[in-house]
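Dear Dr. L.,

I hope this message finds you well. Following up on our conversation about the binding site, I have prepared a predicted three-dimensional model of the protein together with iron/sulfur cluster. For your records, I am including the exact sequence and ligand specification that went into the calculation, followed by the structure tokens. Please feel free to forward this to your student if that is useful.
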Amino acid sequence: MSTRLQPPPVSLYVHLPWCVRKCPYCDFNSHGIGPGAVPDRAYLDALIRDVEQELPQLHGRRFQTIFFGGGTPSLFPAGAIGRLLEVLARHDAVAPGAEITLEANPGTAEARRFAGYHGLGINRLSLGMQSLDDASLRSLGRIHDSAEAIRAAAIAHAAGFTRINMDLMHGLPAQTPAAAMDDLRRLVALRPTHVSWYELTIEPNTAFYSAPPRLPDEDTIWDMRVLGQQQLRDAGFRQYEVSAWAAPGHECRHNINYWEFGDYLGIGAGAHGKLTDVERGTITRHARHRLPERYMKLAGTPAVVVRRQELAASDRVIEFMLNACRLTEGFALALFTARTGLDAEALAPGLRQAADRGLLAQGAGRVQPTEFGRCHLNDLLQWFLPEDRRVRATVQR
Ligand SMILES: C[S@@+](CC[C@H](N)C(=O)[O-])C[C@H]1O[C@@H](n2cnc3c(N)ncnc32)[C@H](O)[C@@H]1O
Ligand code: SF4
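The resulting structure of the complex is given below.
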């Protein structure tokens, strides 16, 4: 089945699972812990055991990108993060010019560490601003206010970061389109090179799910989306994915590798990974223990992996599409074959159905979701599921 598989670029995701306090909307694997209470030494020991166990599986491929995500990675001092980077360098595991991102909360305590991260060779910072309005920040249960967010941006620039992402959410409790645009305007003034502009969603197993706040209605959110897209375009950003906007040349290489169905090793509590073995013709997903204590105990042994799933042909089709259809530019059919090992014919029935409904367009060996398709991504993806797994496929332009 998989003779046409080619070894994809490989990224490293490092999960750091603690935050000062759990936000009421967040379903990431993150656990509230007091400042200064993170067991950074023991956790880094575990990460190092974990990565050293996995490196042989890469068969000499070096990481093109590294992403320290969370949780709140900026709770870890630069010295701790540096220990892992040193180990990777010793194993010659990082490609020259690799993109290395670290997620940071804009609290004052964290911002003090930015210069240290830059000194380690971390060349991209991702700041979780969420809003620049104090009432909204309070409604989101954030521990920072807008003044701290503005200060954190200034510290990030002063520390030498030339690639700075800022996360902003819209559709917040009681937010009007005018307030959402004000938030965007204030964010753009802080000179990010990349903006991740998310609509607030209410996720199961969060405090907002148990006690939902009153959110703007669908029409209001739609207005925010249309106005915000124009504002981001006017500010020189290009939307290259559902929620991702970049100044020219500042797209996030790490996330693009996910969306292009590249490989990644995920280390840390609850981290996920996907690795291709060209010799065996397999693509395997892995997940690690979610609880930090358990993870630290088992890291460096095979038992740290709780789930391992080899992807069958039908999984490869839907998983590839799930990722690649998020990209504004879509994808080349040749990439589909290289990453899944399947002939482009495997996509043909779904492509026909989705194209007939105006959800995507095809031409010159490429597939591109239409604007309509990107707004109805779930409906588009239905056509790439085996028939017995389709739940609804009704939308038509
Ligand atoms: C792992 S978190 C970010 C890092 C950092 N801990 C922080 O919060 O500043 C990644 C981003 O996902 C977004 N996010 C998290 N939960 C969300 C939700 N329920 N709806 C929309 N966006 C969400 C937020 O913008 C957040 O910054
Ligand atoms: S949004 Fe960020 S700070 Fe808040 S709990 Fe989630 S990971 Fe932690």
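In brief: The domain at 313-397 is CATH 1.10.10 (Arc Repressor Mutant, subunit A).

With kind regards,
A. P.
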